[in-house]
Write a structure and sequence with these properties.
Number of strands: 14
Strand content: 5-15%
CATH superfamily of the largest domain: Type I PLP-dependent aspartate aminotransferase-like (Major domain)
Structural class: alpha/beta
Length: 510
């Protein structure tokens, strides 16, 4: 039987690095200090941009300074490979040509009428730019409606309807600053005080626990079962809910990340039905994080949305669904485009959500346009379709090959095991550290997982995230790494990991 152990996160326990110290320093005491800012801010943790990345940036500065001075850096590597975050274009994934063509034209409308444009831009890109500008005459430099550009929301609704086989309404779609802003808005509405809690999967993407900390809510962890490929088990969800309620926590909602981050599993339709029924039975709101819905690699597998199952079952559960332009095959992280769809949400609650997003006036318009392009790309018969299809198919095929290769190779490394990488962009392998290595971590003032990741970075320049930043079973160690480095570079990344891991295990098992 799967046991449900204590929720574990790594937290820094060492003096600040020079960069951290410089960020914390102040020229005068003043009324604001680390001890007087909102404690909810200091309690929030976000591991994917935490201690490891700060150290990686320091190494990067050392390499750059050495390069400029034409001298050795003193490091055993000549570049940092950032595998800490799903940021495809940082790791040389090329943007989709049609999307950038349309954005260029919308950003600089004079190009549309320029006599050279037909020789540079395909006619369907020019037509799409005209359509967007007709719908949003202020262009990318003006605020849009608070809920988002109307034509983009209509296209999102059409995309959802085609995906799920059920009607969808543009009035239920909110365009957001990436999926993260939508998640934050919903959690702000749900958490009223420190007695309110939200169930989150463990391991989880730290956006959820960080946002709960900022809002003063309680994370209620339900553990995924690593022995069953990070499977979701209803008995564990019921256990987590009962334990939380016994502690006086008013559990209001359940978060499900599908496909999983950091774990990469893809839920079956039966799993989704079970969660929907659980929410219905327990009167809980559902938050469906589906930003990796295009990233499914297992042969014969497919993505099923929570919205589809809710409509199939005619369930009354209240559902918030999230999607993003940062993932999939687009990887347009810097555009900060996303959407939030509401299902079975009362009109008066929708009004409050509208008010909440209106406080920020609107999400950035370039991100909204990228959402529009994501959900309504070139179709068969369009001039741009052959190139679009070639680019998308190439990216997905490459991601599948990289996922397979990394998963296979991790499982051949000493004391490392990794579940099948069926979706998303990450591996979350388990590392069994020898007792002597754990003692070395303790002597260094580090959690074992953080120590392992820092040693890996110091030896190889490969930046990963300790598993504790996502939550993990007490006494276990993991790390999250992307498989986003270019395909031709994956062998080098794997070789660096293997050489480091073999050396560390040999040293501490001796």
């Amino acid at each position: 039987m799967f046991q449900s152990p204590k929720l574990v996160y790594d937290t820094p326990s060492c003096p600040p690095s020079p960069l951290q110290a410089s960020l914390m320093s102040t020229s005068s005491p003043g009324p604001l200090s680390h001890s007087t800012i909102n404690p909810k801010v200091t309690s929030a943790q976000y591991a994917v941009r935490g201690e490891l990345v700060i150290k990686a940036m320091e190494y990067e500065k050392t390499i750059q300074a050495a390069r400029e001075a034409s001298r050795p850096s003193g490091l055993d590597f000549d570049r940092i490979i950032y595998c800490n975050i799903g940021n495809p274009q940082q790791l040389q994934q090329k943007p989709i040509t049609f999307f950038r063509q349309v954005l260029a034209l919308v950003d600089y409308p004079q190009l549309i009428e320029h006599p050279s444009s037909p020789a540079i831009f395909p006619p369907d890109a020019i037509a799409r730019a005209r359509e967007i500008l007709a719908a949003e005459p202020g262009g990318t430099g003006a605020y849009s409606q608070s809920q988002g550009i109307a034509i983009a929301r209509r296209h999102v609704a059409e995309f959802i309807a085609a995906r799920d086989g059920h009607e969808a309404s543009a009035e239920d779609v909110f365009l957001t600053e990436g999926a993260s802003a939508g998640v934050a808005a919903v959690i702000k509405m749900l958490v009223r005080d420190e007695s309110d809690g939200i169930m989150v999967p463990i391991p989880q993407y730290p956006l959820y626990t960080a946002t709960l900390a900022l809002c003063g809510g309680q994370p209620v962890g339900y553990y995924l079962n690593e022995a069953k490929g990070w499977g979701l088990e209803m008995s564990e969800m019921k256990r987590a809910l009962a334990d939380a309620r016994a502690k006086g926590i008013n559990v209001r909602a359940v978060v499900v990340i599908n496909p999983g981050n950091p774990t990469g599993q893809n839920l079956s339709e039966n799993d989704i039905k079970g969660v929907v029924q659980f929410c219905q039975d327990e009167n809980l709101v559902m938050l469906a994080d589906e930003v990796y819905q295009a990233n499914v690699y297992k042969d014969g597998d497919r993505f099923t949305s929570f919205k589809k199952v809710v409509r199939d079952l005619q369930s009354p559960i209240q559902l918030f669904s999230f999607h993003s332009t940062s993932k999939g095959v687009i990887g347009e992280c810097g555009r900060r485009g996303g959407y939030l769809e509401i299902t079975n949400i009362p009109a008066d609650v929708k009004e409050q959500l509208y008010k909440l997003v209106s406080i920020g006036l609107c999400s950035n318009v370039n991100g909204q346009i990228m959402v529009d392009l994501m959900v309504a790309p070139p179709k068969s018969g369009d001039v741009s379709y052959p190139l679009y299809n070639q680019e998308v198919t190439g990216i997905l095929s490459s991601l599948k090959r990289r996922a397979t290769k990394l998963g296979t190779e991790l499982n051949t490394m000493k004391n490392i095991s990794c579940t099948s990488l069926d979706g998303a962009m990450y591996a979350f392998p388990s590392v069994r550290l020898p007792p002597a290595a754990i003692a070395a971590a303790k002597a260094a003032g580090k959690e074992p997982g953080t120590w392992y990741a820092l040693e890996l970075l110091k030896a190889t320049g490969v930046c990963v995230v300790p598993g504790g930043g996502f939550g993990q079973v007490s006494g276990t160690q993991h790390f999250r790494t992307t498989f986003l480095p270019p395909e031709e570079a994956m062998d080098d990344v794997i070789m660096r990991m293997r050489k480091f891991n073999d050396g560390l295990m040999a040293k501490y098992e001796a």
